[in-house]
């Protein structure tokens, strides 16, 4: 409600009450006028920068994780269980533990402070999770289908793209939701390794809300917060049923 109030009404009324007169100036300013550092273009350009990182990172993390998961269900080799344990550990290790090694690696590769470096970082960070999700789902699929495809002459990638993936929409949606929200809501990586002038939206929101100069415009802050939350809210509303279905049909089995 606060985002739809004028500053005068916010100062004079209870924050929990609905607005006496609906005011959309806070939303307009948050979108393309609020100051983020030295630039006063609102959150709009930072949305574009965020999706330029989120979409490639999402596609790569899901695709590589699906390929890894399928390979782990088909090929049993010495140390495969140890590899799965390592992937599980990689999912739950705090990222603060390897901020410095990441910085050194990106610097040596010459991609520190670039959007490409951030995409690569999110891809590598998301692959352990997607690999485990897809591996635990693929082991529940009937092995007779893969054997029949092999007899018919289908190779690894043909089986994967034409048989396995079409049978896995639920777990794909689970992976998409988890990776999308993880990349989109990222703050530490964006702030530490992001490209100057092209900060993702969460870093921009932090600059808007925690600004220490000028008048504290609570309606603009609330509007900016709601604007940044809309994409993840939309994803969960549209794909929520697939998320639950994927989790209950094998995503947490092993």
Automatic annotation (TrEMBL):
Q: Any keyword Transmembrane?
A: yes
Predominant location category: membrane
Ranges for the ABC transmembrane type-1 domain? 47-239
Q: Where does it reside?
A: Membrane
Q: How does it sit in the membrane?
A: Multi-pass membrane protein
Q: Where are the transmembrane segments?
A: 47-70, 82-104, 116-138, 159-184, 222-244
Report whether Zinc shows up as a keyword of the record.
no
> This protein is called what?
ABC transmembrane type-1 domain-containing protein
Name the source organism.
marine metagenome
